Structure formats: structure tokens, C-alpha cells
Amino acid sequence: MILKTISDLGLAVREARRRRKLTQKQLAQTLGTTQEWISQFETGRLENPSLGTVLKAFAALGIDLNIDSVPGSLRNNDVDTGDLALDEPSFLKGRRR
């Protein structure tokens, strides 16, 4: 599944949660959020979900985010990706030892 929108992310979480036979409440407890947040996220009604919580949900549900699945056209160096570097996030660049 190629995820292009926040709604796609929510749908992926819903499908994975259901496959694992978890309720929204159980997932919310695992993530430290509310059942309402899960519901809104899964249905695409949450406009700006916390990236940290989304990534935590993906990890808890075993959803693999593989950057190798990004089409070559998105790896075009002419495209300004801002802080979303495809090779290494900028927040990690300053932490090298």
C-alpha cells in the first residue's frame, strides 16, 4: 500500500489494528493517547496528527515504513523536500559523535 495522505495513514493503522484484533481503546492505551484520537485518526478527521504518535502506532502494529518503496520520481534532487530529507533527517545530522 502506498501512503499518500493522512487518511491513508489512518486507514493503514485501522487495518493493522483490526488484523491484530485490538480495539481502539487498547491501541490508545498502548500509545498513551485516547480512543477518540485513534477514531479521528483512522477516519481521516484528525487534520494534524502528531508524527511521533503516528510512528509509535506503526511500530506497535508492526507496520513497516520502507523508504525504498518511494518512486524514483520523488527522489529527484530538484524537488525541495525541506526538512524531510530522504537520506537522513536533519535532526539526526547534528548528533554525530
From TrEMBL:
<dbReference type="InterPro" id="IPR001387">
    <property type="entry name" value="Cro/C1-type_HTH"/>
</dbReference>
<feature type="domain" description="HTH cro/C1-type">
    <location>
        <begin position="13"/>
        <end position="70"/>
    </location>
</feature>
<feature type="region of interest" description="Disordered">
    <location>
        <begin position="75"/>
        <end position="97"/>
    </location>
</feature>
<protein>
    <submittedName>
        <fullName>Transcriptional regulator with XRE-family HTH domain</fullName>
    </submittedName>
</protein>
<dbReference type="GO" id="GO:0003677">
    <property type="term" value="F:DNA binding"/>
</dbReference>
<dbReference type="Pfam" id="PF13560">
    <property type="entry name" value="HTH_31"/>
</dbReference>
<dbReference type="InterPro" id="IPR010982">
    <property type="entry name" value="Lambda_DNA-bd_dom_sf"/>
</dbReference>
